[in-house]
Amino acid sequence: MATPDHESRVMGALSRPGYQPKTVKALSREFDIPPDEYPDFRRAVKRLVKAGKLVVARDKTLEKATEAAKKSSSGAIVGTFRRTAKGFGFVRPHGANDRADHIFIPEKYTSDASSGDQVAVKITRRARTPGMNHEGKILDVIERASGVFVGTYFEQDGDGFVKVDKSTFHESIYVGDPGAKGARPGDKVVLEMVRFPSPELEGEGVITEVLGPRGTPGVDTLMVLRAYNIPDEFDEDVLREAREQARAFDEANVEGRADLRDVLTVTIDPATARDFDDAITLSRDDRGYWELGVHIADVSHFVPTNSELDRVARLRGNSVYLPDRVVPMLPEVLSNSLASLQQGKTRYTVSALLEFNNEGVRTGTRFVRSAIRVDQRFSYEQAFEAMKNPDREIEGVSPPVHAMLGRMLELAMTLRKRRFARGALELNMPEVEVELGNEGEVVGAHLAQDDESHQVIEEFMLAANEAVAEFLTGRGLDFLRRGHDDPDPMKLRDFAEFARSLGYAIESPQSRFELQRVLNESADQPERHAVHFGLLRSLKRATYVAERTGHYALSSEDYCHFTSPIRRYPDLQVHRALLATLAGKRPKEHVDELVAMAEHCTRTERRAEAAEQELIKIKLLTFLGDKIGQNYHAVIIGVEDFGLFCQLIELPVEGLVHLTSLHSDYYDLERETHSLIGRRRGQRFRLGDRVEVRVWRVDVDRRELDLVLASELPEGMELPESRTGPRRPKRPGSPPPPRRTGGPPSPRKKGSRTRRS
């Protein structure tokens, strides 16, 4: 058994509003730590201090590093730093969403901070014009985002260097004698930083792993996994526990469970899925009332609290779904076998049995630990065909199963209609999915399907999640919720003004019904992209929370994640809280531990999303490297004073049309309408507009795609080549060379006030 998660509980307690600094001993008394656990508790605190997450004051009290930084530096602002390719950077203060709130940091004041670091910054010059950025200076790096980076190895003048991917560092990092770890020029390598570069000192690192030559199949995936610190292997202790659980499982033993193996049961999942979390049963009585059974894999049976399996699942937070592989939260003997609800196998589940009347009002709720046997597994495509053809015989689908699929569609559409009637929002934009070849390369793309079969499962999962959240809330319990805060009223007012400029009047921007009306009215209009992107910019991101906050987009007062415990740790925690309650016990997690768990799981979720998006971008940029000069259709998804961010319609990748490439006119930014407007001809480029662009430059290592408008390309202009190699390094110990200042912006130029982030 692993020790209790003291670190999470301590971080949760120190994150509470109104926390008063306490000593380790005082915290242990507050937590009621038994004497025999105190040494482990003290060691956990020391680990947090060593990791830079906590600081110990002179009076031996503990504080989060971010809070201590604010106190130690009068007027300091804490935020996340992002360095640009030119050396200067920006700090996004915690809680700031608008680019105008970001703080511009000239290169000489960036210290040794790298992108993603948590820093304390002091304002040195305030913006004099609305929309411009304040200027600041980094006082301290509070917490490093990472000490490990991925880049391209090369040699110069008898020394080894690594050019780190993206624009993390402006210059290459010195790694000593050539050939370390057997690296060859052009290899992608993992680098651990020994000394972070600063304007005064060169960076130095050590190669810890050679991933392989650039372009070799699978290397791009390893690059992303290492860059985002995503573990892709399990320790032997974890695998041993998983194998022990497999040996102990007896599918004939259903003692203590509701035996639902004879109830007609189906699953509907993507065709390539292997981890089946959920199964459905549905019946209707003589009154016309529905009984919906949402049966979720009972992962808690196989993953005891504080076991090694639990520790690694908590650490990972979630499974990571990449274009060419899945990195599971749990070993595959569990995620793809014992816990997965496979057709024809007896599987343990936690069942939400929900009763609805004919209008879709939930009239009854019951939860049981159960055993089921799936009668038929469907892909979404197969289920959709059966649902849309109720009177036609479908090969391989029995009449009872076919009839149940039709009933599922009927109930789901009733629930969906009712959900929108209460104010839920639906922001659906066409999504493009890439198609990969045998070696992981992009070979094409297609529109992702979002037909009724997807909506059926979505509605049933939403219903189960809400029912569980209401059940636990009604008993006054603490558990992990899924929260989505209300938008900033000012942002909604800005969106309303933008919508009016498109011809859509919004009388009350705070009304979800008004917002959904505009979404519906623009759904089949040319302004569809503009309206949807404009509203998305106004909404906050959903997070995991320990307190009751509600879910704005779903118009739900109580919501949690319950339906995917194979791939999400928050769902596993909710299962444990539910099962403890059903057994007449109180859940073990303290609210402080839940606060830290919520923050951690939100971070791992966003890490997984970022890793997936980055790998897709790498693959697409590699594909587009051979398409220099080719035209594509695109939609404008961002408008800034330095250019237009455009997403290709045929491929899910975005690039920048730089302002300097718009030769036909001089353009000014109109923030209220998210537009660039030509001074002479009045040409307008607005958020959501469709344009034709040409691929102009591709830099895979920097993750950059430069586009030009096809209409702005001068005849006979020579096309550039895509960049694949690193730039010439500086000698170790030498002063930084002068930066090239050509092209906007020029942060070293005295008096220049053009800033962006």
From TrEMBL:
It holds the Pfam family RNB. InterPro entries: CSD2, NA-bd_OB-fold, RNase_B_OB_dom, RNase_II/R, RNase_II/RNase_R, RNase_R, RNR_Ribonuclease, S1_domain. GO terms for molecular function: exoribonuclease II activity; RNA binding. Its EC number is 3.1.13.1. Residues 594-621 form a coiled coil. Residues 747-757 have a biased composition (Basic residues). Keywords: Coiled coil, Cytoplasm, Exonuclease, Hydrolase, Nuclease, RNA-binding. One of its GO terms (biological process) is mRNA catabolic process. Residues 629-710 form the S1 motif domain. Belongs to the RNR ribonuclease family. RNase R subfamily. This is Ribonuclease R.
